[in-house]
């Protein structure tokens, strides 16, 4: 029966892995995905909002992102937001749409993205280890019998190893995807 401390620790580690995978999704692989632009802030209606909150985002093919604002008045703001984000994309306003063609990726650019993926993976592993540390601290404060404490400590380590391995597996997949020339 998993202990409450193990469950809390596992939940924190799961959040860390989810965050890492979300960061991986935002890395430009040469294939268009809505995640590349959906969280870019746009100045619209007198406040800052994300593109996904004011427009529909689609990818008609692997080299193009099409953004269709629900209000035509924010088209220029969406285009400007993408340019300000400085993610290497050049939006083109086309009537009621903003088209964002993806440039071909050079070998150097691919290597840069691999380094970024490694950094995100390391940050994810650090977050998992911090969750383990927090769980072990909570365990020490719980003042449980020594045999139960040791068992829970082993469970926490097993969960830590599982989540770390998950991050490494996804990093390898992302690296393969980034280095793959289409």
Automatic annotation (TrEMBL):
SUPFAM superfamilies: Ribosome recycling factor, RRF. Residues 22-179 form the Ribosome recycling factor domain. InterPro entries: Ribosome_recyc_fac, Ribosome_recyc_fac_dom, RRF_sf. It is found in: Cytoplasm. The keyword Protein biosynthesis applies. Keywords: Cytoplasm, Protein biosynthesis. Coiled coil: none annotated. It holds the Pfam family RRF. Belongs to the RRF family. Responsible for the release of ribosomes from messenger RNA at the termination of protein biosynthesis. May increase the efficiency of translation by recycling ribosomes from one round of translation to another. PANTHER family: MITOCHONDRIAL RIBOSOME RECYCLING FACTOR PSEUDO 1 (PTHR20982:SF3), RIBOSOME RECYCLING FACTOR (PTHR20982). This is Ribosome-recycling factor. It comes from Actomonas aquatica. The gene is frr.
């Amino acid at each position: 029966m998993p202990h409450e401390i193990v469950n809390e620790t596992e939940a924190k580690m799961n959040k860390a892995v989810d965050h890492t995978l979300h960061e991986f999704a935002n890395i430009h692989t040469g294939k268009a995905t809505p995640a590349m632009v959906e969280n870019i802030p746009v100045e619209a209606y007198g406040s800052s909002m994300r593109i996904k909150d004011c427009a529909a985002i689609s990818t008609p093919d692997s080299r193009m992102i099409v953004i269709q604002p629900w209000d035509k008045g924010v088209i220029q703001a969406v285009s400007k937001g993408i340019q300000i984000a400085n993610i290497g994309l050049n939006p083109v306003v086309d009537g009621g749409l903003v088209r964002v063609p993806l440039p071909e990726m050079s070998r150097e650019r691919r290597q840069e993205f691999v380094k970024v993926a490694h950094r995100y993976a390391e940050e994810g592993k650090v977050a998992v280890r911090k969750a383990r540390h927090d769980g072990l601290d909570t365990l020490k404060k719980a003042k449980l019998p020594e045999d139960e404490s040791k068992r829970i400590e082993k469970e926490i380590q097993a969960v830590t190893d599982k989540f770390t391995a998950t991050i490494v597996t996804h990093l390898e997949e992302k690296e393969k995807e980034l280095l793959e020339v289409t």
